[in-house]
Amino acid sequence: MTVAATFKRGPIEVDRPQTRAVRSSAAPIIAAVDGSAASEAAIETAMRLAGEMKTRIVFVYVRRGPAGFLGAPVYERRLTAKMKKGRRVLDRALRFAARAGVIAEGELLEGAPGRRIAEFARDRDARLVVVGSRRRKLGRSISCVVVRAAGSPVVVARNRERFAVASKAA
Predict the structure, then answer these.
(1) In this structure, which of 51, 74, 137, 165 has its CB flanked by the most CB atoms within 10 Å?
(2) CATH class of 24-169
């Protein structure tokens, strides 16, 4: 039996889990999320792959810590705001997975995103890592850092809307 989940780009079909005990013991797929359009592409790709591979997903949101030199009240407010955003992004991803019948969990991490995603994937013995693709004006993109540092295969999911606009312009 298949279940459809609807994204902005249309419905996707994912197999409903047959036995949750078997699926939860398998190595997970790690999907990095941050609330961007590239993150939605990563969620969609991770759910599709989890359905095909009959495994679970661990959604990971990595936040950078706020600067501490501004003082305790400012630090506390910014930390609270970043934690709230991280929980909101993870909850959204978990709702999409629940609607599709995919077993998923969320983790909120702190540090440099590329390095922390790669470390987390190694610690969880991930079967696969899924990250979104975004262009950065300065510095190396997070997806490049994860591809270089991860010990497991990495899928870089592209935002179809951005890809469609880029291909029309060419």
Answers:
(1) 51
(2) alpha beta
Render pLDDT for 105-160 as a digit per residue (tens, 0 to 9): 999 999 888 899 999 999 999 999 999 887 766 567 888 888 888 888 899 888 76
Is residue 117 within 8 Å of 60, Cβ to Cβ? yes
Residue 62 clears pLDDT 90, i.e. is over it: yes
Crossing angle of the two packed helices 142-149 and 113-123, in degrees rounded to 10: 30
Please state at what angle helix 72-100 crosses helix 37-53, rounded to 10 degrees.
Answer: 40
pLDDT of residue 28: 94
Q: Contact at 8 Å (CB) between 11 and 162?
A: no
Q: What is the 3-state secondary structure (H, E, C) of the chain?
A: CEEEEEECCEEEEEECCCCHHHHHHCCCEEEECCCCHHHHHHHHHHHHHHHHHCCCEEEEEEECCCCHHHCHHHHHHHHHHHHHHHHHHHHHHHHHHHHHCCCEEEEEEECCHHHHHHHHHHHCCCCEEEEECCCCCCCCCHHHHHHHHCCCCEEEECCHHHHHHHHHHC
